[in-house]
Amino acid sequence: MNSTHISRRTVLQSVGGGALAASAAAHTGSLAGGPLAPWTPGTLDIHHISTGRGNATLIVCPDGTSMMVDAGATYASLEYTVAPIPDGSRRPGEWIGRYAKRHLQAAGHGEIDYFVLTHFHGDHMGETTAGSPPSKDHDYLLTGVTDVEAVVPIRRYIDRCYPTYDYPIPQNDPWTGNYRKFIASQVKRGRSVERVRVGSARQIALQHKPRSYPDFVVRNLAANGEVWTGVNEESRHLFPEIASLKPADYPSENMCSLALRLSYGPFDYFTGGDLTCGTQYGEAPWQDIETPVAQIAGPVEVAVMDHHGVTGASGPGFIRALRPRVFVLFAWDSAHPCMDTLNAMMGTRLNTGPRDIFSTAMKQETRIANRQVADMKSQNGHVVVRVAPGGKTYHVFITDNADESDRVIAQFGPYTCA
Ligand SMILES: [Zn+2]
Asked: Residue 7 pLDDT more than 50?
């Protein structure tokens, strides 16, 4: 390797300085050991925020339009999960909000333009507990996305069910109830809330300079078993009519997840919440919803693993259709990922090309039970995908999740888009 080229497998540990780091800085504006350089116009940044408590992704689009996908806050037992990241002195949603605020301010913006919720589970929107404090107006409790909004204003919301929240059954559990109270309060304050329009490439649009980036597109791929056909903005329903099913066979909340594809020139990115592929041992083939969604999305450069890599998700159809060069895993539980899922991702039967896997966190017990975890490129830290202007190349930065320094501890790339 020479000093002017960083191979896609190069890792710059937190040493700072040196020819390799200097060369990487020339490509990306960031030095290993120093803070991640701020977003600059034309760049697409995708931050997979590591809290050990759920999913949260901050996206800064080429014109500065910002989007957050999910803002989880689970309070599951530490017996099964990693400890809160960076620590328990703040709630997960507060850490996520503060992360978003400092990165958006660096980009010259003070608001989140879109919040997109994939589905109504606590590790994606926030759980409430007996200790959750009320909001300022006592309309709802602070957790997850409601904590984020208290730190950074959010202009628009998109979820899978607004305004009826009745598919496949009325969504009235306490956590979704808290989210619905929050949404009602946001509507009262003049914020926009919409149900996802599956198939649309216009519902999520650049807000600042759309004409400067005509090749940046966010496509709504799926929600509630409705999947884009690949033609114009048409979609089709893949779940049976609810009335034809026994309640035990209704689509699960995970199966109803909303999925998106972001494209910037030749760069494509997939995120699909907790979509699953399990079929009740073949009895309900329609329950493999992630395969048709991945088939209409793929192939892509970067994919978030469905449902944290748990068995019955991120399955063979998903891997074969997306064939990403980079997988990102939101992990915090001892089942993230499961052995069979990781084995399929690492193997060459479904995906013959090279691929790198990055996880936001890893439970120590998982490393012992699942030896292939050692072959991941990174097991802990915020995973930042930074796509160069035009979308032809990208880097992956791992930044420190122990504090709010955003110190780069490893760097991978440049990767070239197919
Ligand atoms: Zn989840």
From this structure: no
Give all domains of the chain, ordered by start, each with its CATH number. 18-416 (3.60.15.10)
Q: How far is the CA of 277 from the centre of ligand 1 (A)?
A: 14
pLDDT in tens, 143-171: 999 999 999 999 999 999 999 999 999 99
C-alpha of residue 125 to centroid of ligand 1, in Å: 10
389 C-alpha to ligand 1 centroid (Å): 31
The alpha carbon of 256 and the centre of ligand 1 are apart by a number of angstroms equal to 12
User: How many whole angstroms separate alpha carbon 65 and alpha carbon 61?
Assistant: 5
Q: What pLDDT, on the 0 to 100 scale, is given for residue 32?
A: 66
Distance (Å) from CA 54 to ligand 1 centroid: 7
Ligand 1 mean position to 281 CA, how many Å? 22
- pLDDT at position 107 is 80
Q: Compute the distance from residue 274 Cα to the ligand 1 centre, in Å.
A: 5
Ligand 1 centroid from CA 258, angstroms: 12
For residue 354, the number of C-alpha atoms closer than 13 Å in the C-beta half-sphere is 9
What distance in angstroms lies between residue 195's CA and the mean position of ligand 1's atoms?
Answer: 20
Q: Please tell me the distance between residue 122's alpha carbon and the centre of ligand 1 in angstroms.
A: 8
pLDDT tens, position by position, 26-83: 445 566 689 999 999 999 999 999 999 999 999 999 999 999 999 999 999 999 999 9
- Which residue, chain included where needed, has tokens 């390797």? 1
